[in-house]
Amino acid sequence: MGQIIITIIIIIIIIIYADDTYLIIPANNINNRTAEINNIESWSRANNLTLNLSKTVEIVFMDSTRKREVQLPSPMATITRVTSLKVLGVTINSRMSVSEHVSTVISSCAQSIRHRDSPSTRHEQQRPSTHLQICRHS
Q: What is the pTM of this model?
């Protein structure tokens, strides 16, 4: 008989950018959420930083291609669960979609263009007949 070798790989990713920290925990390790938050709090204290739990949120990403019902983990007592999150300026939802972000940017650009082309601003500005409108959303 052959030998069965089972390898368990636990991957937890922590991304730190400026004053934002993102903790990514795979579904198979979801029971360690509290311990990982405690680890981040300890690391923060050791580095003279503070983890602001009132600004800390949890988002559960789900695969929208799977049709079966998914059992969500229980919400954490001290952390609010959200359905969308802004990561480095881009809004992403729990279905891994950026459609909300794209809609917001398009709406912002449309408002900018409408304002530029309004009668009150048209006569004040000398614009060439051909121009490039660059919309930037921050």
A: 0.64
